Request: fold
Amino acid sequence: MIKTSVNIMRGCFGGCSFCSITEHEGRIIQNRSKESILEELQEIRDKVPGFTGTISDLGGPTANMYRLGCSDPKAEANCRRPSCVFPGICHKLNTDHKHTIDLYRSAREVEGIKKVLIASGVRYDLAIESPEYVKELVTHHVGGYLKIAPEHTEKGPLDLMMKPGMGAYEQFKAMFEQYSAEAGKKQYLIPYFISAHPGTEDEDMLNLALWLKKNNFECDQVQNFYPSPMCNATAMYHAETNPLKRVKYKKRDVVPVAKGERQRRLHKALLRYHDPNNWPLIRQALVDMGKKHLIGDGPHCLIPADDQQKQTPAQRRKSGRHGANRFATKHTKSQPGFTPLRKGRNQPQATAAQPTKSQQRGKNAAKSKQVS
Ligand code: SF4
Reply:
């Protein structure tokens, strides 16, 4: 637990397939009272050594589910839906964010608290139902970057994850940009994605990579799906069946699952399409998929045809596949760490004087005979 972050609730009614919070914390939100939260803020202010006045988070499993829930207790008691917000927001769900807005305002007024940040994930399909909440969040509670989790761009995987489509993301992004501009702040959205989630095919990951490239995103941290206890996605992974639809003895909805080292690595590599270390794998996959036109230097291409040109001399040396001197150009000669070849000494070692593979094998065989 981060010492300057405050938990305001437990539970989540999102029901995302890859997450087990709904199972172990419950679908009905358990809220703390506003007074209790404000008391904790004062306690942090008074007791945390070195407290600078910044609260790093006021949240929970989802930042914006505080005091939200089903408006009909009878329906809630009998409801079997795994999510209140997927495939669409249930008409019985109360989406009024007034309690969260009120809490944020009161938290900002606590003496000695200079800044309250929201670091928990914002459920953006829910947030766009309350523009006033988005405005409050963007104007006062974003520390430059706001992390949100579309998780994918393609409908197939998104439906199996029980996540909203990219339409909701685009709407939230437009609101975020508008309110940031109105507040005179330069702030950015950081979208999170998952690779290799059950239901994700190579083509889906490729489309996601092309979307990332088109939108100038280069993900540093990415999640490659791993089956974990109590998740629907884990059942999908092992049974290769969609448990969100009715499963009969001889009739089931088959789910494609990325398994095996190569395919899982490829899906992750596509999320990090900008990393030169991933280019050989992606290049081969694009050839296999009949998408050679995406290899090259054109604006529509995903990766370059030749990774040598895109690496710095330091990266080429580190790769260990060849010496930098061998591929020296005018440009590399001007690099600070470049050592020119000296005639008669290191030049032959780098090129012609290197024994061929068969010569080397012969030498090795002779050596092993001498030893025996
Ligand atoms: S009726 Fe709707 S809002 Fe109520 S619990 Fe079920 S899905 Fe959620």
